Protein backbone atom coordinates (compact mmCIF):
# COMPACT_ATOMS: atom_id res chain seq x y z
CA UNK A 1 0.00 0.00 0.00
CA UNK A 2 1.40 3.36 -1.06
CA UNK A 3 1.77 6.26 1.40
CA UNK A 4 0.75 8.59 -1.40
CA UNK A 5 1.64 9.56 -4.94
CA UNK A 6 4.35 11.88 -6.27
CA UNK A 7 4.11 13.57 -9.66
CA UNK A 8 7.59 14.63 -10.76
CA UNK A 9 7.71 17.25 -13.52
CA UNK A 10 10.85 17.79 -15.58
CA UNK A 11 12.14 21.17 -16.69
CA UNK A 12 11.97 22.78 -20.11
CA UNK A 13 13.88 20.92 -22.83
CA UNK A 14 14.51 18.09 -20.40
CA UNK A 15 12.53 14.88 -20.10
CA UNK A 16 10.98 12.33 -17.75
CA UNK A 17 14.29 10.45 -17.51
CA UNK A 18 16.24 13.54 -16.43
CA UNK A 19 18.75 13.06 -13.63
CA UNK A 20 16.95 15.17 -10.98
CA UNK A 21 13.44 13.74 -11.42
CA UNK A 22 14.93 10.24 -11.59
CA UNK A 23 16.68 10.85 -8.26
CA UNK A 24 13.36 12.04 -6.75
CA UNK A 25 11.57 8.97 -8.12
CA UNK A 26 14.15 6.75 -6.40
CA UNK A 27 13.51 8.53 -3.09
CA UNK A 28 9.73 8.24 -3.44
CA UNK A 29 9.94 4.53 -4.21
CA UNK A 30 12.28 3.83 -1.31
CA UNK A 31 9.89 5.60 1.08
CA UNK A 32 6.80 3.74 -0.17
CA UNK A 33 5.27 6.46 -2.38
CA UNK A 34 4.06 5.66 -5.87
CA UNK A 35 5.28 8.07 -8.52
CA UNK A 36 5.02 9.13 -12.12
CA UNK A 37 7.09 11.33 -14.39
CA UNK A 38 4.88 12.90 -17.07
CA UNK A 39 6.45 13.61 -20.42
CA UNK A 40 5.98 17.26 -21.46
CA UNK A 41 8.52 17.21 -24.30
CA UNK A 42 5.81 17.44 -26.99
CA UNK A 43 4.51 20.65 -25.41
CA UNK A 44 7.99 22.08 -24.85
CA UNK A 45 8.62 21.71 -28.61
CA UNK A 46 5.76 24.06 -29.52
CA UNK A 47 7.95 27.07 -30.24
CA UNK A 48 5.08 28.58 -32.24
CA UNK A 49 3.21 29.13 -28.94
CA UNK A 50 6.10 30.68 -26.97
CA UNK A 51 9.84 30.32 -26.48
CA UNK A 52 8.98 27.92 -23.62
CA UNK A 53 6.48 25.92 -25.63
CA UNK A 54 2.86 25.54 -24.60
CA UNK A 55 3.03 26.32 -20.88
CA UNK A 56 -0.78 26.53 -20.38
CA UNK A 57 -1.20 23.06 -21.93
CA UNK A 58 1.65 21.74 -19.75
CA UNK A 59 -0.12 23.12 -16.67
CA UNK A 60 -3.45 21.63 -17.76
CA UNK A 61 -1.89 18.20 -18.32
CA UNK A 62 -0.42 18.27 -14.80
CA UNK A 63 -3.72 19.41 -13.26
CA UNK A 64 -5.53 16.53 -14.96
CA UNK A 65 -2.99 13.96 -13.73
CA UNK A 66 -3.01 15.40 -10.21
CA UNK A 67 -6.82 15.48 -10.08
CA UNK A 68 -6.93 11.82 -11.02
CA UNK A 69 -4.25 10.91 -8.45
CA UNK A 70 -5.85 12.87 -5.58
CA UNK A 71 -8.92 10.63 -5.86
CA UNK A 72 -6.68 7.74 -4.72
CA UNK A 73 -4.86 9.45 -1.82
CA UNK A 74 -2.32 12.14 -0.86
CA UNK A 75 -0.36 13.74 -3.70
CA UNK A 76 2.95 15.60 -3.68
CA UNK A 77 3.91 17.68 -6.69
CA UNK A 78 7.59 18.15 -7.44
CA UNK A 79 9.45 19.70 -10.30
CA UNK A 80 12.48 21.47 -11.62
CA UNK A 81 12.43 24.93 -13.24
CA UNK A 82 9.36 25.05 -15.52
CA UNK A 83 8.26 21.79 -13.86
CA UNK A 84 8.48 23.54 -10.48
CA UNK A 85 6.46 26.47 -11.78
CA UNK A 86 3.60 24.31 -13.08
CA UNK A 87 3.67 22.19 -9.90
CA UNK A 88 3.21 25.29 -7.74
CA UNK A 89 0.43 26.74 -9.91
CA UNK A 90 -1.31 23.34 -10.14
CA UNK A 91 -1.44 23.22 -6.33
CA UNK A 92 -3.89 26.13 -6.50
CA UNK A 93 -6.29 23.91 -8.48
CA UNK A 94 -5.82 20.49 -6.86
CA UNK A 95 -5.60 19.71 -3.12
CA UNK A 96 -2.05 18.46 -2.66
CA UNK A 97 -0.22 17.35 0.48
CA UNK A 98 3.06 19.07 -0.34
CA UNK A 99 5.30 20.76 -2.90
CA UNK A 100 8.96 20.29 -3.78
CA UNK A 101 10.32 23.02 -6.06
CA UNK A 102 13.81 23.05 -7.57
CA UNK A 103 14.99 26.35 -9.11
CA UNK A 104 11.43 27.68 -9.51
CA UNK A 105 10.90 30.70 -11.78
CA UNK A 106 9.08 33.43 -9.87
CA UNK A 107 7.85 35.00 -13.11
CA UNK A 108 6.90 33.45 -16.46
CA UNK A 109 6.30 36.28 -18.93
CA UNK A 110 2.55 36.58 -19.55
CA UNK A 111 1.73 33.73 -17.14
CA UNK A 112 0.81 34.49 -13.52
CA UNK A 113 3.63 35.10 -11.05
CA UNK A 114 4.69 32.07 -9.02
CA UNK A 115 2.03 31.20 -6.45
CA UNK A 116 1.13 28.04 -4.57
CA UNK A 117 -1.30 26.54 -2.11
CA UNK A 118 -0.50 26.88 1.58
CA UNK A 119 0.94 23.39 1.99
CA UNK A 120 4.29 22.13 3.28
CA UNK A 121 6.78 23.37 0.69
CA UNK A 122 10.46 22.75 0.19
CA UNK A 123 12.56 24.77 -2.26
CA UNK A 124 16.07 24.11 -3.58
CA UNK A 125 17.73 26.98 -5.40
CA UNK A 126 21.20 27.85 -6.65
CA UNK A 127 23.16 30.91 -5.61
CA UNK A 128 24.55 31.21 -9.13
CA UNK A 129 21.42 30.39 -11.13
CA UNK A 130 22.00 32.10 -14.47
CA UNK A 131 18.27 32.09 -15.38
CA UNK A 132 16.39 32.73 -12.14
CA UNK A 133 17.82 35.27 -9.67
CA UNK A 134 18.25 33.86 -6.20
CA UNK A 135 16.90 36.96 -4.44
CA UNK A 136 13.38 36.53 -5.85
CA UNK A 137 13.21 32.86 -4.88
CA UNK A 138 14.54 33.56 -1.39
CA UNK A 139 11.89 36.24 -0.86
CA UNK A 140 9.14 33.98 -2.26
CA UNK A 141 10.16 31.16 0.11
CA UNK A 142 10.47 33.56 3.07
CA UNK A 143 6.94 34.87 2.62
CA UNK A 144 5.63 31.28 2.73
CA UNK A 145 7.92 30.05 5.51
CA UNK A 146 8.99 27.32 3.09
CA UNK A 147 12.02 25.16 3.72
CA UNK A 148 14.81 26.59 1.58
CA UNK A 149 18.10 24.99 0.64
CA UNK A 150 20.50 27.33 -1.17
CA UNK A 151 23.41 25.61 -2.90
CA UNK A 152 26.62 26.72 -4.62
CA UNK A 153 25.54 25.75 -8.12
CA UNK A 154 23.92 26.96 -11.35
CA UNK A 155 20.42 26.50 -12.75
CA UNK A 156 20.77 22.81 -13.57
CA UNK A 157 21.85 21.90 -10.00
CA UNK A 158 24.27 19.39 -11.57
CA UNK A 159 26.53 19.33 -8.51
CA UNK A 160 23.66 19.00 -6.00
CA UNK A 161 21.43 16.17 -7.20
CA UNK A 162 22.08 14.15 -4.02
CA UNK A 163 21.38 17.16 -1.78
CA UNK A 164 18.16 17.85 -3.70
CA UNK A 165 17.08 14.23 -3.28
CA UNK A 166 17.84 14.44 0.46
CA UNK A 167 15.69 17.58 0.77
CA UNK A 168 12.86 15.77 -1.06
CA UNK A 169 13.22 12.85 1.33
CA UNK A 170 12.96 15.22 4.30
CA UNK A 171 9.73 16.67 2.90
CA UNK A 172 8.16 13.24 2.30
CA UNK A 173 9.14 12.10 5.81
CA UNK A 174 7.44 15.22 7.28
CA UNK A 175 4.14 14.48 5.55
From TrEMBL:
Q: Which InterPro entries match?
A: AB_hydrolase_fold
Top-rank taxon, per record: Bacteria
Put simply, this protein is called Alpha/beta hydrolase
Organism in which the protein naturally occurs? Stenotrophomonas lacuserhaii
Amino acid sequence: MSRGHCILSHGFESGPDAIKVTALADVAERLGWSHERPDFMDLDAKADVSRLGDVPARLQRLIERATSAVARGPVVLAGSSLGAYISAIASLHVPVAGLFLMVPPTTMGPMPALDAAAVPTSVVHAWHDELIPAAGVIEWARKRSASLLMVNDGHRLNDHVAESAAAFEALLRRL
